[in-house]
Fold this sequence. Notes:
CATH topology: Thrombin, subunit H
Distance between the termini: 22 Å
Number of helices: 9
CATH class: Mainly Beta
Largest sheet: 6 strands, antiparallel, barrel
Order of helices and strands: HEHHHHEEEHEEEEEEEEEHEEEHEEHEEE
Number of strands: 21
Helix content: 10-25%
Shape: globular
Amino acid sequence: MEDRIIKTNIPVKPKKRNRAIPVLAVLLGASISFSSLQSIGLIVLGRELLGNAMYERTEKETVKDDSDRSDDHVIEDEKVKNKENNEDKKTTQSDNAAAFSVIAQKTDTQDPNRKTLSTTEIVDKVSPATVSVFIMGEINGENQKIAAGSGFIISESGYMITNAHVVSPVVSYPSCWIEVMIPGFDNSIKAKIIGFDEQTDIAVLKLEEDNRYNCVTLGDSNVLKSGESVVVIGNALGSFDGTVTAGVVSGLNRNISNNGYSMTLIQTDASINSGNSGGPLINSFGEVVGITNSKIATAEGLGFAIPISDVKDEIDSIIQNGYVANRPYLGLSTLKVDDGSYYGIEPGLYVAEVTEGGPADKAGLEVGDRIVTIDGSDISESKEILRIRNSHAVGDVLDITVIRNGKEKTLSITIGDGVNN
C-alpha cells in the first residue's frame, strides 16, 4: 500500500521461472510491470506519509492475479523479529490471556438492555481508547514524525490495533520506531509490533509502558445494515487527533483490490482522511465494528473499513503467535490470458510466478504452465484457486492438472502453512 514518501520495498522470496517458454515469460513480465505501475499510480498519496491507503475499485481483473501471496506477511513479521531483541519481543502469558479474552468476547446483539447512544455518548465512550500513531525517525540529527495513523486499544494491558500499512515503514527501516499519543497521557508512549498481516491490513501493537489502559468494546460487523449510523474517530491528516466524523453504512461487502489481495470492506460516507487509517468505525451502540483503512481519492464520501468480525481470528492468532497461523498457502501467482490477447498463446490461466521452496515449487509447477483443473474443478479464474485453497486445511493434498509444452500433466501439491514459507 504505497502512500508514503519513503518507498517501502519489502523483499520477497526469489521466484523460480521456466526459461523454456521465453515468449510467455516476457509477456508475463511486461504485463506484470505495467500492472504494478498502474497500482502505484492509483494509491500514492503524494507528498505526505500519513498512513492511509487509497484504493480504486475495478470491475476488470488486473493483469496480474496473485492467487497466493500469503508469504508476504511472514517476511514482514520475520523482519520485525530480527529487529527486536528477544527480551523486547517477549510478552507474558497473562498479558496474552488478557488480550485474548477481550478479542474472544462476542457482543450480545439480542441483549434487551443494549441501547443506542448519541454521538457525544459514543465519543465519550470510545475516544479515551482511540489513539494517534506516529512513525518516528531521526532526520538531520533530530527525532521527527515521518508518518501518522490512528489506532484503538483492545485490552487494559495495552494491546492495540492499527493498519499494517501504517506500521510498514518501521519494518522496512529498522531505524524508525512507533510512538503513540493516548488521551489523558501527557507524553507519548512507545509501542512495539507484535505482528501484522498485509493480506488483511491489520497490525497488533503493544504499548511498552505498564499502565491500566482504557479499551474499546468490539461489536459484530456481521449484523450491520446499510443505512445504519456510524461514527469515525481518528488522527485526521496526522495533525488533528480525536477528529470525529459521523455518517452511515453506505454499503456492505464491497470488494476492493489491494496490493494483490481482495478485501471485502464496509463502505461509509463518514469522512475518512489521511491519518485516519487504523482508527475505529463505531456503531450506534458504541462498539467498534470496523477498522478504517482506505478511501477513493477521486470521489467524495467513499471511505472504507475492515469488518472487525472478519479479522478477529487473525487478531487472536497474532496475539498468541506473533503471526497469522494455519493459513493455507500454495506459493504461486497466476496470469489470465484472454482469447486473442497474445499471438500464438492459448487463452487460460497461466502460472506467472512460483515461490522457490514453496508448495507449488515442490510439486513441480513451472512458470508457463496452463492450469486446467485443481481438486477436480475446472479453473479459469484466480478466484477459483483461492476458493479451493481456502476450503482446505494446511497439509491437505490437491491434484492439479496443467498443460505444459502441449502435453497434459497431473501433479500433487500439499497445501503449506503461510508462516513457514
